[in-house]
Amino acid sequence: MRTQTLNIPKAAQAPQDSIEFGGVTLRGVRMRFQRNEEIFGQDEAAEYVYRVVSGAVRTMRFSSDGRRQILGFHLPGDIFGLELGDTHTLSAEALASSEIVMVRRSALDKAAADDARATRALLQLISEQLTTAREHALVLGRKGAGERVAAFLLQLADRFVAKREMDLPMSRADIADYLGLTIETVSRAFSEFERNAAIALPSSRHVVMRNPSALYELEAA
């Protein structure tokens, strides 16, 4: 197994960690970010690729008038921050206290050039990200408010080990900015799902999927 070493200033003071690409281990450093702390900014140099170890991350863009559009939520194991150009097209912030592995993009580029396994893994990751972006665009373009929230909960549940129960790392405002809705609309959808026994809400962020079939029917409408 090939190992490439990441050279980051003060790396010796941080615990070492890595990102796996098709059996190729890329060494990096593990950093901790507090809730709402920026990991990288829009238009900054894209020098690193990132993996969530614990916590959660939101990636987003800001329009010229300052409005925020969230484009993705990243959970433990997810890789983010991969860019085709030299600068980040998005910003990234920690949704909660999070540990993130940072690996130099140059190490990834070299691994992809030297090892076919890493090349295939990189192409697969890019393909998955494009598919996710396309599916999200379809949700925003074709579905009503309730359908969008139902689709969001179902997609998120698929990413949790316990698919019928989850603690949401994101707020209602985050969900609204991801789905192109208002906070009030998202809250009404959650309340309606609870009244119809599709979900239970022991707390505002703890969701129990009581009847996923009802959400699937709404999402497919």
Can you tell me about this structure?
The chain is of the alpha+beta class. It folds into 2 domains: 3-118, Sandwich (Jelly Rolls), CATH 2.60.120.10; 140-219, Orthogonal Bundle (Arc Repressor Mutant, subunit A). The protein has 6 helices and 13 strands. It has helices at residues 105-114, 116-142, 145-157, 172-179, 183-195, 212-219; strands spanning 3-4, 16-21, 24-33, 38-40, 48-54, 57-62, 68-74, 79-80, 91-94, 98-104, 165-167, 199-200, 206-209. Strands 1, 2, 3, 5, 8 and 10 form a 6-stranded mixed sheet that branches. It has a 4-stranded antiparallel sheet with strand order 4-9-6-7. Strands 11-13-12 form a 3-stranded antiparallel sheet. Strand 6 and strand 7 (68-74) form a beta hairpin. Helix 1 crosses helix 2 (116-142), helix 3 (145-157) crosses helix 5 (183-195) and helix 3 (145-157) packs across helix 6. The model is unreliable at 1-15 (pLDDT under 50).
Structural category: alpha+beta
How many domains in all?
Answer: 2
- Give the assembly state of these chains: single chain
User: What's the average pLDDT?
Assistant: 87
**Main β-sheet description:** 6 strands, mixed
Percent of residues in helices = 25-40%
Please write out the topology.
Elements: E1 3-4, E2 16-21, E3 24-33, E4 38-40, E5 48-54, E6 57-62, E7 68-74, E8 79-80, E9 91-94, E10 98-104, H1 105-114, H2 116-142, H3 145-157, E11 165-167, H4 172-179, H5 183-195, E12 199-200, E13 206-209, H6 212-219
Parallel strand pairs: 1-3
Antiparallel strand pairs: 2-3, 3-10, 4-9, 5-8, 5-10, 6-7, 6-9, 11-13, 12-13
Helix pairs in contact: 1-2, 3-5, 3-6, 4-5
